[in-house]
Structures are given as C-alpha cells and as structure tokens.
Amino acid sequence: MWKLLLVALSVCLTKAAKLDEVFAWNELSFAWPSDEIREKALNSGDYVPANNLPLGLDRWKDKLFVTVPRWKAGVAASLGYLPLSSANKTASVIPYPDWKANTLPHGDEKPEDNHIISTFRVKVDQCDRLWVMDTGLADILGEPKQISPPAIVVFDLKTDKLLRRYTLQPTDLKEDSFFANIVVDVDPAECDKAFAYIPDLGEYGLVVYSWADNDSWRVKHNFFYFDPLKGDFNVGGVNFQWTDGVFGLALGPRQQDGYRTLYFHPLASTREFSVNTHVLQNKTVATDPHSYYLFKIEGNRGDLTQASASDFDEKANVLFLTQLNRDGVACWNPKKTLNSQSLALVAQDKEALIFTNDIKVDPERNLWILSDKMPIFIYKQLDASQVNYRIFKAKVDDLIKDTVCSV
Ligand SMILES: *[C@@H]1O[C@H](CO)[C@@H](O)[C@H](O)[C@H]1NC(C)=O
Ligand SMILES: *[C@@H]1O[C@H](CO)[C@@H](O)[C@H](O)[C@H]1NC(C)=O
Ligand SMILES: *[C@@H]1O[C@H](CO)[C@@H](O)[C@H](O)[C@H]1NC(C)=O
C-alpha cells in the first residue's frame, strides 16, 4: 500500500516528460590525447574521475560548453565542450581552448594568458565570443591554492583564440569573494560596447566590467545579501545550510533606449529583484549610495523556491529559474506580479533533476538544463554505479505551454 502510494506520488511529481535527455554520465570522461597520457594522469593523481563534477553550461552552434570547477584535486580540465553532432549520451569532454590551457602549472611555471584554472559558469555572447569567469582557485574543498587572480577570459569562438584576459582589480574583490557566474550584455551591432555582470555570492556584491573602457567597478546593495530564513536546503537526501548571496542574473529584453532590466536573486533567498542596466553601466551612478532606490523588489516566489541560475527567453518574455529544493525548473512571466501563483514549475523529477545547477536558453529557444547532485558530491559521496550528471534540453514553448507563464 505504501509502496503503491509512493509510486503514485512519484509519478505525479515527475514532470520531465517534455525534457530530452541529451547526456547522462555516471562519471565524466575526457578526450585525452592518448590512453598513455590518461593512464599517467590517473597514476599521478592529476586525474581523479570521481572529482570531476560538471556544473555550468552554454551552447554555441555545435559545441555545448561545460565547466568542471576544481572543487577537489584531480580535475582533468575545468573548461571543455561536448560535440552536439555525436549522439553519444556519455560523450567525453573536449578541453577548451586546448589541454595545455587547462593544465595546472607545475612549480614556477607561468601559465599562458589563455589558461583556465577553475571556472563555474561561462557565457556565450551574441558576437560569437565565450566569456569565462576564471576564479584562479584550485582544490577549493581540500587545500585551496590561488594559482592566479580571478579574471575574465574572453575567447573568439570562430578561431578559439584568446581575445582578452582581464584580471579583476583589487577594489573588485573582498576577502571571501566567490565568483561563480557571469552574464554578458551586448548588442550584436555594437560588439565592442559589451558589459559583463559578475555576482559575488560570497561577499554580496556585483562587479561590472566594461569591454570598451577595459575597466571594472564593484556595486553594493542590501538586495545582494542572503535571507537568513531561507538558507536551509534539503536536496538529494542531504540537509545543509548555505549563506550564498547574489547569484542568478538574467537580462530582460532590450528597451528602445538600449538598456535592459537585469533580474537577480541571491541563492539563499526566495525573492527576485531587478535593476536597470543604465544604473550598472554608469560607474558614478552604480557606486553612488544614493542609487539605493533604483533597485526594485519584483516579489517573493514562495516556499522552497531557492534558485541558482536563471535565464530569460525574450520571445515569450519568460524568466526561467532552477529550483534547488524542488528538483526542478520554474518559470515566471514579468508581465505578472511575482508571487507563488505566478511562478510555475515546468519540470520536476525527484531523481533526474537533483540539483539543477545551471540553465541556459540558446538562440533556437531550447532550454538547456544541467543537474549534478552537487550536495551529495560535496557532503557525502556520489555512487559511481548510478547516473549522477545529466544534461537535458527542451523547447521553451513546450515547457511554458498551458502554464501561467504563457500569457
Ligand atoms: C561514447 O563515448 C564514450 C566516451 O568517450 C566512449 O567510451 C564510447 O565508446 C562511446 N560510445 C559510442 C557508441 O560511440
Ligand atoms: C586592460 O586593463 C588592464 C589593467 O587593468 C591592462 O593590463 C590590460 O592591458 C588592458 N587591456 C586592454 C585590451 O586594454
Ligand atoms: C553618468 O551619470 C552621471 C550622473 O547622472 C552623469 O553626469 C554622467 O554623464 C554619466 N556618464 C556617462 C558616461 O553616461
């Protein structure tokens, strides 16, 4: 009887039918130059398969980029891609831009400018560039080593060449800064006027980078802090408390004047906030304490709606958000005031969507979802005999059909 009830419950809680499972791994594999090199890395501890957890993603044409932060030692490469042309669900990650850029320097070796030490999320912009937020920090949960300072690393996706490496300024950083996300604001007609917005979840700030000025500034606001009542999580059978501040950022449609609304939320929070990009892009205004009221409260999403990443589909005017405590993904159409009624859960699966870590809407209006059971990886241990990491894709219009998001 109980079993029957549980089955019935899990069926109605499973809303993954609209999702197409594109990748599913027990452990992540990499495209090593040779078996010999792989063996050597395994023997030396430079590669510990169980320590390679995929976390962030974004798509450019036939490449699906994935990040593998150096939480623990033995990460083969922190940035790579999966070829979307191959129909192999357990495809190997191909390091990007190459193996060398992803290899930790030995001894006094000075890494080349295109190196990636550890990255959480990346962003493909509308000018065929890949923006990587390299934290420079290896072995985060073990013996943390700051190998290079946090930097924005930008590649030309057409040539795979480095366009720029910008080291964040000392004034952009604080002692417990943690940069795990990056969004890019650019009009494809004016590629050299790009801005990047980088949330600091550890010290509750936002760093703005202007490509044209090659300058950055740090923005402060109370809305960047976590809610002390919303830091309790239960995910994949693990209970934990987090204090992560501003995290998910997503840009709304461009207005007539060229500016956009940046929607944002702290991770340990159920509220959504916003600010117009004209506030952030002007260094004077952005750093002026009198700008306090230029930041808006959009609303409260309701219980258990804590979210990591978010992204926006402009055609449907819908914001998508991961739902960490609900093993799923939700949507909200900003035409409606945000509350628990205007938020719709569009995907949920108590196994396959444990810790939806990153989502992205691609130019063809597919929503990509990466789930990776991260709390089990951090606080317990993943079971390598089971599927632990999954990447799904779904059509935005299919997801929001018959929900409050499609108005
Ligand atoms: C899929 O990729 C994995 C990892 O690269 C490889 O071991 C396996 O042989 C591939 N499967 C097929 C059917 O090509
Ligand atoms: C950007 O500024 C940094 C100093 O913050 C400098 O080292 C770098 O050369 C500049 N890059 C460009 C492209 O101007
Ligand atoms: C930034 O805002 C200030 C104050 O409103 C204004 O005086 C200044 O011209 C603006 N700067 C730019 C580059 O738009």
UniProtKB/TrEMBL annotation:
Q: Key word Signal present in the record?
A: yes
Where in or outside the cell is it found? Secreted
Pfam families membership: MRJP (PF03022)
Q: Which GO terms describe its cellular component?
A: extracellular region
- Function noted in UniProt: Controls the pigmentation pattern of the adult cuticle and larval mouth parts.
InterPro entries on file: 6-blade_b-propeller_TolB-like (IPR011042), MRJP/yellow-related (IPR017996)
Instruction: Give the keywords, sorted.
Output: Secreted, Signal
Q: What is this protein called?
A: Protein yellow
Signal peptide extent: 1-16
Which source organism?
Answer: Asbolus verrucosus
